[in-house]
Amino acid sequence: MQHYVSYYTGGMTETTAKPDRRAERSRQAILDATRELLAEGTVGALTVEAVAARSGVAKTTIYRRWRDKWELALDAVMIDVVQRFDELADVGDTRKELLAYADWVVTMLAATPMGPAMQGLVSQIATDPGLARVYREQVVQPRLAQLAPVIARGIARGDLRPGTEVRLVHELLAGPIFYRLLLSGAPLEHTLGARLVDAVLAGFTPRAS
Q1: Rg (Cα) of the chain, in Å, rounded?
Q2: Is the dihedral of CA 138, 141, 145, 147 positive or negative?
Q3: How far apart are CA 177 and CA 184, in angstroms?
Q4: Would you say domain 85-204 falls under CATH 2.170.150.40?
Q5: What is d(CA 15, CA 89) in angstroms, rounded to the nearest whole number?
Q6: pLDDT tens-place string over residues 90-145
């Protein structure tokens, strides 16, 4: 959580960036109120005024933490949520470790308000360089960091080819899930994660010499 706060406050030291309990309660009330409002409507209809009224936190306080409603919505439905995702533990099985990640992404994006909100946020992320930077730094990079040791273990076990790219595996796992959410309209059923993991493993199995 400290990493998140230091990003938005910029230039603070490790000591000053650490939030106090009151600030953290305020932050969580804002995010909870944002999620509630997004469950009731769309990102386009969301307003900082409504979040302030629902959370009981002053609008000026919200703007000190988030540039606009888009950054706030992204934090509420993605950044704050993914930060709660547990590290991918070494269970001695590459398939199970990859499946833990893929199943989590499917479950998250199939839920309200996360999935519908991301449908509204994606065009803004694509056209707003500032929001895109936040998404890449606070969502994509941490996921790559989590997957990196899984890939390394898979290579060491002989389940994956040497040189298997972490970013490519991540994109092959998460990409089809987002494609279904945003474009094809196919369901995010509970078996999707397993099928994607099996396809990735088949594609990166060491070649016979």
Answers
A1: 19
A2: positive
A3: 10
A4: no
A5: 30
A6: 999 999 999 999 999 999 999 999 999 999 999 999 999 999 999 999 999 999 99
